[in-house]
């Protein structure tokens, strides 16, 4: 039987076929996907994933947050599982690979181990974490956050979507609320394979990013209240234009992020304008400012200035404003031992690799608080992600999954 380091490889064609098969569920409008969390499409994707895992000989566990865990047994009944995984939910105009590669890459590792007849001392598990994206129910990484004890389950289940539907109700409606108490599983380690979602690896000509850190994030939801009135007949001095208040705060967000160049970033991706009618001055706006940086002090400074200077802008315009923190996590340093296993795997396979800091949030950022965790990244074309045109090559997906295989085998222990 072959041993790790002896050129073991996953089946890149089978991995690619599975990615394309999953992408048929919840198609987008421009070639990508709209498989948002706790929708019917999410349920359909879960069913297909479960079928594939069972065909690969795994038992499926399901917790009360809908997190799915497929287990391939090990030979030592006392050894904790080595986890792999990511998320199957997508943005409303998402790509085919964000999250999905990490779940189906993990499945491909299990399938390849089965093909090669390799047994491991530790069990190996594949996780699909519920609501990583945070688009429909803020915040992002909601269920891995509950698993890691960051949020309470009651709080998470009371999150509302834009139609006022509750996370807990929607999880039950789609039939994917399990009975296993969330967070009770203990992990020997966890590895998340993910596309980079940025331009660095492609520009540097590297197939593999060894993720050493994740940058921190802060989401502040801002509600500005003015007064709806006629766009034509309301004199300029009498207007209470919440939309204009938001525009000035958006300029401020940009200035704050630039003031911490080159590493800090800031934008508002979620904006609701009320009543959103061509001839009504907006009386209310609700929007979410997303600030990120690898430096916690920078994130805290950006949050502080947003509230201070945003309040001043609204006061001067006679607008009411409320700030609510709706998500965030501190910068993350991944486990040195797991990171080293990823680097050794890339080296032994001969893949060009470099250290990288994750710009995006990932379930691994929370799981790192309860188990030794690391991430593997592969490039994506033009660094484009959270876009239906998100693209990767089969070679990149294969290289990332080969590295996942070797890092997991080293950690789980091959049984001769
Ligand atoms: C998750 O996709 C995030 O980085 O917001
Ligand atoms: Mn993702
Ligand atoms: Mn995403």
Please characterize this protein's 3D structure.
By secondary structure, the chain is of the alpha+beta class. Helices cover about 35% and strands about 25% of the residues. The chain has twelve helices and 17 strands. The strands form four sheets. Strands 1, 2, 3, 5, 6, 7, 14, 15 and 16 form a nine-stranded mixed sheet that branches. Strands 10-12-8-13 form a four-stranded antiparallel sheet, with helices on one face. A two-stranded antiparallel ribbon has the order 4-17. α8 packs antiparallel against α9. The longest helix has 22 residues. The mean pLDDT is about 95. The structure holds glyoxylic acid (GLV) and manganese (II) ion (2 copies). One manganese (II) ion binds next to loops.
């Amino acid at each position: 039987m072959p041993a790790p380091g002896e050129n073991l490889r996953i089946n890149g064609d089978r991995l690619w076929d599975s990615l394309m098969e999953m992408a048929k569920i919840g198609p987008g409008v421009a070639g990508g996907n709209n498989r948002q969390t706790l929708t019917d499409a999410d349920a359909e994707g879960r069913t297909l994933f479960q079928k594939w895992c069972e065909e690969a000989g795994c038992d499926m566990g399901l917790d009360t947050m809908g997190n799915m865990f497929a287990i391939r047994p090990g030979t030592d009944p006392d050894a904790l599982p080595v986890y792999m995984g990511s998320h199957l939910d997508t943005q409303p105009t998402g790509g085919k690979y964000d999250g999905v590669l990490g779940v189906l890459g993990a499945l491909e590792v299990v399938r390849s181990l089965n093909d090669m007849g390799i047994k491991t001392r530790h069990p190996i598990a594949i996780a699909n974490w519920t609501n990583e994206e945070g688009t429909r129910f803020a915040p992002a990484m909601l269920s891995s956050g509950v698993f890691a004890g960051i949020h309470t389950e009651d709080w998470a289940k009371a999150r509302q979507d834009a139609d006022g539907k509750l996370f807990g109700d929607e999880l039950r409606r789609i039939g994917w609320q399990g009975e296993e108490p969330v967070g009770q599983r203990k992990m020997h380690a966890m590895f998340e394979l993910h596309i980079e979602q940025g331009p660095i690896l492609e520009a540097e000509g590297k197939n593999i990013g060894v993720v050493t850190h994740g940058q921190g994030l802060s989401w502040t939801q801002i509600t500005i209240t003015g007064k709806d009135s006629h766009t034509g007949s309301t004199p300029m001095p009498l207007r209470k234009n919440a939309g204009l208040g938001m525009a000035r705060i958006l300029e401020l967000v940009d200035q704050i992020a630039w003031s911490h160049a080159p590493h800090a970033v800031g934008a508002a991706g979620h904006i609701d304008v009320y009543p959103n009618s061509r001839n009504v001055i907006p009386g209310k706006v609700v929007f979410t400012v997303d600030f990120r940086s690898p430096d916690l002090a920078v994130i805290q400074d950006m949050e502080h200035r947003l509230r201070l200077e945003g309040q001043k802008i609204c006061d001067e315009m006679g607008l009411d404003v409320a700030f609510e923190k709706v998500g965030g996590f501190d910068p993350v340093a991944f486990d040195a031992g797991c990171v080293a296993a990823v680097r050794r795997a890339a080296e032994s396979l001969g893949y060009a690799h470099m250290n990288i800091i994750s710009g995006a949030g990932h379930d691994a950022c929370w799981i790192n608080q309860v188990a030794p965790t690391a991430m593997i990244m592969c490039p994506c074309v033009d660094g484009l992600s959270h876009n239906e045109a998100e693209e990767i090559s089969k070679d990149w997906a294969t290289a990332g999954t080969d590295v996942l295989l070797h890092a997991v085998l080293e950690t789980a222990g091959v049984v001769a």
